From TrEMBL:
Residues 6-236 form the ABC transporter domain. It comes from Kineosporia mesophila. This is ABC transporter ATP-binding protein. SUPFAM superfamilies: MOP-like, P-loop containing nucleoside triphosphate hydrolases. Keywords: ATP-binding, Nucleotide-binding, Transport. GO terms for molecular function: ATP binding.
Length: 381
């Protein structure tokens, strides 16, 4: 079925008086790959199930072009679904599983055979067609589930954590496979995941949810480079997040903002409007911190506490005198105990509103320094 856009308008869902999802406004263009991303319990599956029709809405409407579809039963929406647990019939062969939905639709037999053969070919399972699901690997079973969904030639495919039961290597392979199918079949896909790397690598746009509310909607590049709130930054891999207080106000995104973090005066860039006086969150990615030979502008002194080898780079944890734990990625060969000057480029250090509710407060210094470090380790400059 062709359409131009799927539109979610103020979609909400309550369970026993508690909002699991609120005010979800989202327009999905035909052919887009959208990821719903967020930590456990943020409302991702609720959103997907509302679109699927498995959950009635508590508020809002869903439109497929000019047709209102939230009032339709799931099977009348024309969507395909792929779940985490595959949901295959164990007593039916692979081919029969794929044919099942087509038979339910009472399609002519030659059409059923043609579509099943095509779907099997798409997921490279032609030679497994006569097996039962129990005789297949997890990855193959998930391929069957995907084949079964796409055989219905759905207008939209909804996927709920389809790769979470697979091992790491297979997950990577299947990511590519799903993206390939999405592209080659011209599908429109809504994909639920809590894995930010998966979402970033697959989706055209991401919807980041927290506590049932949309935090930000954007392309992977937008969310990576311009997160508008600290939860989005946190979810996008910004491992260094600290509570601080703002010393100079910044009216808009992109303006310079001075912050105080545990007595350190640091210059950053406002990620959104921030006001004094006020608690802010300060964030910088490990790969944006530079290890420099000597202290200078925008540097902090720190002592290396942990070094992990990670392929071409090292993941280093360093502690500053006032007890700030910084995660740094560097090619420098450092060892625990090394004193380092770390440059925090102001344009990379983002200042977000509302740092008071940061889940990771700055740990006190005495919990952080390991006993074998020199007594003056991490002393402030
Ligand atoms: N059937 C239900 N009855 C009551 N509460 C529910 C029900 N389904 C979900 N919830 C609640 O709604 C909130 C959102 O749940 P949802 O399953 O959408 O989250 P999620 O982001 O998909 O999490 P996960 O990744 O763990 O599945 C949670 O607080 C959850 O406990």
């Amino acid at each position: 079925m062709t359409f131009s856009r799927l539109r979610l308008e103020n979609v909400g869902r309550r369970f026993a008086g508690t909002d699991a999802l609120q005010h979800l406004d989202l327009t999905i263009e035909q052919g887009e790959f959208i990821a719903l991303l967020g930590p456990s319990g943020c409302g991702k599956s609720t959103a997907l199930n509302c679109v699927a029709g498995l959950l009635p809405l508590s508020s809002g409407r869903i439109w497929l072009d000019e047709k209102r579809i939230d009032v339709l039963a799931p099977e009348r929406r024309g969507f395909g679904m792929v779940f985490q647990n595959y949901a295959l019939f164990p007593h039916l062969t692979v081919r029969r599983n794929i044919e099942f939905g087509l038979r339910m639709r009472r399609l002519p037999k030659p059409e059923i055979a043609r579509r099943a053969a095509q779907a099997l070919e798409l997921v490279h399972l032609e030679d497994q067609a006569g097996k039962l699901p129990g005789q297949l690997s997890g990855g193959q079973q998930q391929r069957v589930a995907i084949a079964r969904a796409v055989a219905l030639e759905p207008s939209v495919v909804l996927m709920d954590e389809p790769l979470s039961n697979l091992d790491a290597k297979l997950r990577l392979e299947m990511r590519t496979e799903i993206r390939r199918l999405h592209q080659s079949l011209g599908l429109t896909t809504i994909y639920v995941t809590h894995d930010q790397e998966e979402a970033l690598s697959m989706a055209d746009r991401l919807v980041v949810l927290r506590h049932g509310q949309v935090q930000q909607i954007g392309t992977p590049e937008e969310l990576h480079s311009h997160p508008v709130s600290w939860p989005v930054a946190d979810f996008m891999g910004c491992r260094n997040l600290f509570a601080g207080s703002l010393l100079t106000p910044a009216a808009d995104r992109g303006e310079a903002a001075m912050v105080d973090v545990l007595g350190l005066r640091i210059e950053g860039t406002a990620a959104a409007h921030v006001e004094t006086p006020g608690a802010v969150a300060v964030g910088i990615r490990p790969e944006d911190i530079e290890v420099v030979p000597v202290p200078g502008p925008h540097t902090v002194d720190a002592t290396v506490s942990v070094v992990e080898y990670q392929g071409r780079e090292f993941a280093v944890e360093a502690l500053t005198g006032p007890g700030l734990r910084l995660h740094v990625r560097t090619a420098e060969r450092l060892v625990p105990g090394d004193p380092v000057a770390l440059r925090l480029p102001p344009e990379r250090l983002l200042v977000f509103p509302g740092g008071a509710d940061l889940p990771r407060p700055v740990a006190p210094l005495d919990e952080e320094i390991t006993p074998d470090l020199p007594a003056d380790a991490g002393a402030p400059a």
